[in-house]
Amino acid sequence: MTAAPEALARPGRLRAAQQFLADNPVIVLVGVLAVLFIVTDIVNRRDIGEPFITWNQLSTTLLVAAPLGMIAAGQTLVMLTGGIDLSVALTATAAAFATSWQGGNGEVQGVAAGLAVGLGIGLVNGIGVGIFRVNPLIMTLGTSSVTFGLLSIYAGKPFEKIVPEIVSTLGSDRFFDYLPANLLLWVAVAAILILGLRYTGYGRMLYAVGDNPVAARLAGVRLWQVRVVVYALCGVFSALGGLLLVGFTANPDLGLATPYLLQSVAAVVIGGTSIFGGWGGYSGTIVGVLILTVLGSLLTLLDAEEWQRQVIYGSIIIVLTAIYARVSGTD
Amino acid sequence: MEGAVFRPLRVSCNGMSKQTAALLEARGVAKHYGPVAALRAADLSVAPGEIHALLGANGAGKSTLVKCLSGVIRPDTGTISFGGRAVRARSPMHAARLGLAPVFQDPALVPDLSVTQNLRLTGMPLGRVRAELAAMELSVNFNEQVGDLALPVLRMLDLARALARDPQLLILDEITAALPSDLAERVFAVMRERREKGRSVLFITHRLAEVIAICDRATILRDGRDVGTMVPREGGEARIVEIMLGPEAARAEARAAELSEDDVAVAPDARERPDAVAADAVLELDGLRAGNVQELSLRIAAGEVVGVAALEGQGQDELFEVLAGERKPESGEVRLRGKPFRARHPYDAIRKGVVLVPPDRLLALLPQRSVRENVAAPHYSTPLRWGPINMRDEGRRVRHAVDALQIDMRAARQVRRLSGGNQQKVTIARWLASGFTTLLCNDPTRGVDVGTKRQVYTLLRELAADGAAILFFSSELAEFPLVCDRVLTVYGGRVTAELPGPAADEASLLQAMHGLDLEEAVA
Predict the structure, then answer these.
(1) For labeling, which of A59, A157, A256, A304 is most exposed (least CB within 10 Å)?
(2) Using CB atoms, which residue from B356, B365, B391 is nearest to A212?
């Protein structure tokens, strides 16, 4: 009997470095982000004659990124459990409509209406996936379609759209010239998520359910409870994203959050969260969101058309998923 | 591996000469799955017109050998000749063309298709299958969906399908295990007919009485090697069991020494209080029925390790499932500390202090998470504990469990990078951290090294000494006397015998596990 050395102890510094990076994809991602910034800067200087890396541009990048950061936060949680939420974009749009519909009745009521719509759609998703065991793809695609149908009736009717003051402040203002207001919300959400995933019982259960549902069940976890809550949370985060968006544009329309569905999934995948669940976290997603946002700016500079963006985002998801599967796959 | 240089004694039980050229001749067939040897080096020779039994305890390699023969898997080494020609079946289809027809434990039929459609899938002439069924006096509605047919009927259908090819060699892998006795009789009749026609049958079973009644010869496997070929009628059941066990005295001693050595606390004090604990039964089962469990009754007292010894599929899995909240009992009563016990979800069982170490550690681990998270997981199963974690408290609980089991923490960041033994320890450690009153161990040492096994035995004895009630199943019989205060043997879903722990040697256990009368066998 040889005392089996742990599989980790494979020799070679290269191997160790590879393992380290596979365990900490955020380090690689920050590098990618830096490179993107520099490339964008070079292109910007060439085409417009101005640098891209300025306080003003950094501030704008964060301002534009925050709504995606919110929506991708919910997506991260859901994907950690091995699920997916395809209704995030329409949930955000619906929340934006609800807020501007109730905005006339007071700020609190406006915000509450938006968040309540998000919570409601999330709960429906959670009950479908967690209790009735509908496949998450089907369930969230279904609620997404229902939401779109109901919204389009509603969007056709003329009504007074009043975006609550606090929402437009949060969505578009900057403090001290450079500090986007929505960054404050984003930082708070990020802190809660990063700490919460690591230091709360619910965080542990999210990972457990995503990593091995059978084992989680044998440990006494009632899976439906974890799932109902995670989809509800995702609904609320999507709604927050929707509020930031409508605060920015000041005018809700049916296509408000449409691009954010694919981007939210892309941000989570770029951030290193496993599509199969059980591994990853929000810090990676934040970098993923920033990468997508800077990439968006770069594509705008290059006059890329919408179809080209779609092709690029889609390709990124596929290629990265393949790479992560290779790097972190079973030994 | 310690067995690598050990050449088993070849037991020649009789003067049977193998003059006739064998129909099937397998030599040195071996199959490894990673580091695990499923089959080390097995020889098997089946003569034409012979009913040949393939015997062995769980994990001896019977099924692996059969799969190698029938082309389901490829052996690593070894030669197989059939009808005098060297062959290597590339697929089950290929094996069938050669004249080998296996009938496996699980019927190989698509449940959503009708019988007719299933038979067409394999290009089987319906008329011949129908004729074979008629010959067995069975009628099956060929338009019915396979999923709607009862399991015994499916087995018979599978058999008829194999017979329709009129194979040189029919391989029956535990076909009688799920059959009522009247259908089993028909299978025996078929086997005898095959023999009269000059065809051969390779018959795998756990029921030794069947072997004695109809088999001409038997080859016995142990630990992936063939350890003897004999004529069952001449040796009798006791002889078969003896060969299954090996050169008994020497082996049992060696095994016991290897497993217990110096540091296993055999806790003699705990064993020498037979009646003192009888008063406070923690867990009581009365006439439990669930799946293969038929009228099973047992009681476990605080401070007691009760072993359950059984062959595969005798109901032990269902027993554990019921107690762990994974399965609903059909009838019977379960009481915990005198109160009715009903668990509809593992959560219910765990909350009442009844916890499970499942047979397959992949069922219990979160492979991508750390040792700490794995060990602490049950603590947070209830939403009441979903809030902030008291990290210091958690650290203490986890450290206590990790120390008790001496888990190697060098690769603790992800449990999947741990060795098998360490992984197994994690599955036990989580219950030490969360606390319990009744520990259900379903084969807790499967596939782990000897050192870890010893630690597990010591731990179980210590837990019992601290007042835990422990139900223990193992596929390795040598473990029972080391760990258990009492051992119950289960056969056909019923308790067939109860042995005091120290007296539960392999021979007695095997007798009782095969449904043989213990007294009779000893006499």
Answers:
(1) A157
(2) B365
Q: Tens digits of per-residue pLDDT, A39-91?
A: 999 999 998 888 888 899 899 999 999 999 999 999 999 999 999 999 999 99
Q: What is the DSSP letter of B7?
A: P
Best B369, B384, B418, B442 residue to mutate vs chain A (most A CBs within 10 Å): B369
Is the residue at B92 inside a domain? yes
Q: Is the interface score ipTM higher than 0.85?
A: yes
pLDDT score for A328: 62
Chain B CA closest to residue A212: B366
Tell which of B192, B226, B246 closes a domain: B246
Alpha carbons A114 and A105: distance in angstroms, whole number: 13
The range of the structural domain enclosing residue B511 comes to 256-353+469-523
Report the gap between the CA of B178 and the closest CA in chain A (Å). 28
DSSP states of A250-309:
SS--TTTTTTHHHHHHHHHHHTT--TTSSS--HHHHHHHHHHHHHHHHHHHHTT--HHHH
Last residue of a domain, one of B246, B278, B304: B246
A/B interface, count of CB pairs below 8 Å: 119
Residues of chain B with Cβ-Cβ distance to A220 below 8 Å are 345-347, 350-351, 378, 381-382
B-chain CB neighbours of A214 within 8 Å are 363
Report the CATH number at residue B270. 3.40.50.300
Both B166 and B190 in a single domain?
yes
Residues B107 and B62 in one domain: yes
Domains of chain A by range and CATH?
62-321 (1.10.3470)
